[in-house]
Amino acid sequence: MNWYFKVWQNYVNFEGRARRKEYWMFFLFNMLISYGLQILAVVAEAPILFVVSLIYSFAVLLPAIGVGVRRMHDVGKSGWFILVPFYNLYLACCDSEPHENKWGPNPKADEAPSLQKV
């Protein structure tokens, strides 16, 4: 859930890089919340929850675009690649560039390795 809140803290930040984990965790929690609200609306027969789901979808639009652009930067591509169907999905699944690129340092470099190779 920390990854989800990290994106909200940078919700209009289109600079820098976002790891695969950050992008996909944000995507996962968005789907869970959105579909959860819609299922709850159907089960409870409460149309107001459909409205809440729609409002949530609009509220999450800018953070989703921001993390998508940063994800494209992480693989060394321009943020405009989020507009290219299927190729953007491929890029979102690719690993980060291991070195610093023009959008900043590798976000994985901040993590210490959990196990040292002997």
Number of alpha- plus pi-helical segments? 5
Unreliable stretches, pLDDT < 50, 5 or more residues?
Answer: none
- Number of separate strands: 0
Order of helices and strands: HHHHH
Assess the beta-strand content as a share of residues: under 5%
What global shape is seen? elongated
Query: Which structural class do the helices and strands define?
Result: mainly alpha
Radius of gyration: 17 Å
Mean pLDDT: 87
For the biggest sheet, the summary is: none
Fraction of residues in H or I helices: 55-70%
Distance between the termini: 33 Å
What's the layout of helices and strands?
Elements: H1 2-9, H2 20-44, H3 47-59, H4 61-74, H5 87-93
Helix pairs in contact: 1-2, 2-3, 2-4
Task: Walk me through this protein's architecture.
The protein has 118 residues and is mainly alpha-helical. Helices cover 57% and strands 0% of the residues. It has 5 helices and no strands. It has helices at residues 2-9, 20-44, 47-59, 61-74, 87-93. Helix 1 (2-9) crosses helix 2. The mean pLDDT is 87.
In short:
By secondary structure, the protein is an all-alpha fold.
What would the keywords be for this entry?
118 residues; mainly alpha; 5 helices; 57% helix; 0% strand
